[in-house]
Amino acid sequence: METRRRIRRAAREGHPKAPDPRPPTPRRRTAEGYANPQDPRGRQVFGKPASLKDVPTHFCSGCGHGLVHRMVAEVVDELGIRERVVGVSPVGCAVLGYDYWDFDVSEAAHGRTPAVATGMKRARPDLIVFTYQGDGDLAAIGTAELIHTANRGENITIIFVNNAVYGMTGGQMAPTTLEGQITATTPTGRTLEGCGAPLKVPEMIAPFPGTKYLVRTALNNPHNISIARRSIKKAFQCQIENVGFSLVEILSPCPTYWRLSPLDALKWIEEKMIPYFPLGEIKVPD
Amino acid sequence: MDLTYLSFDLADKYRNPVLILSDGLLGQMMEPAVLPEMMDSKLPPKPWALTGARNRPPNVVRSLYLDVDLLEKLNIKLADKFRAMEQQEVRFEEFDLTDAVPPPRPAGLSRGRHAPAADLILVAYGSVARICRSAVRRLRQAGQRVGLFRPITVWPFPYEPLATAAEKAKALLAVEMSMGQMIEDVKLAVGRRRRISFFGRVGGCVMTVEEVVQEARTALQEVE
Description:
heterodimer; A: alpha/beta; Rossmann fold; seven-stranded mixed sheet; 10 helices; about 35% helix; about 15% strand; B: alpha/beta; 7 helices; about 40% helix; elongated
């Protein structure tokens, strides 16, 4: 009883750590979410990032793209760069990024994404330019652009979403498809002979002096999601501080073309993908 | 060189690629050239540019529209743009085609471009057009009624001007460094009303003035 009174007094006197003395408001769903900022009793504790539009998603259930879109939007808000950020979207499921992000975005020809970003950044070094690419766009048709952009050390950020499969075109084998993984074009599983080993992108470009921040993260659990979010922020900061080229690889579920439930897809990341694609920072700025 | 400047400005104006149809002579710069001073072009404002969404809704540069209604709108918008280019950007040059009464000239100067109407029109662009111009000069000196029509833009192609020019001619000869590409446009412009023949060299071979003169004479003989 005494404690409660003390807390109430602290709140009255405006102690910063005092809890809100008002009785809790019943959570009501509104257009803005569960908390209603119009309600004087309401207090918004969670909401949509300003850089994210309020539109229904087109992604499949359990897809990782929505999460990564949101994390990018949150980081853009946090760094206060919405008015000078420009995204370049890939060819693939994520091409419609501009339907979700509330900032300037360009399309690029398949895989030419880092080249388009290079042009933008060189023409307007004050802009914060990032590409958002899948493994088909970045690691297959766009390998040449990726390697030369990284080797030139362009001061751009690449968000690389690796789901080990071509999603948009119907689940065909990608360069990142795991050994033994069944896809539309490897019905008996990928074999190293003839298909080669799955491509580890950050490791591949790590030796280039031009690359500054390379990291691999995953979306399989809240802990890793939070690391992914921190890594995205770090990569953007790398660009803002003119450190140079940064790439964040994110292992992301594709339940539709892995033929798994969304939950099993997360397990598959943990059991199959992470052992081959080890998580962690591969290269950090000096 | 002037056309190269122009092509960049047009590409900017219409947000449309402009292709400079080069050939070995141009591409390897086989002749000395003096590059003009950098020119300041008056270019249109670019409200669509991705400059950061400050005090405006976000800009998106895209060509993908999954919604068929939106895609149709885009297609119609592009078609309007192409039509505007066809109306405003057709460029061509005529050489020794007309039989208009020549304007008074100081004594001693030749009749220049105002020659009797051409019976045969050579149609050529680029480096070939210059070779054809020499051939036309030589044929005119020999009293042959030959002129040259030079499309400066091959798209949009000067269909109407060529059709008008061809009205008084008996035949046309398309001269190209190809196996015959522009000749299709010449046929579209002129139809079957005139005899149209073709002369081309390929593989990097360049026709000589003599060869063009010879081909032109053959073409003239066929209609006389």
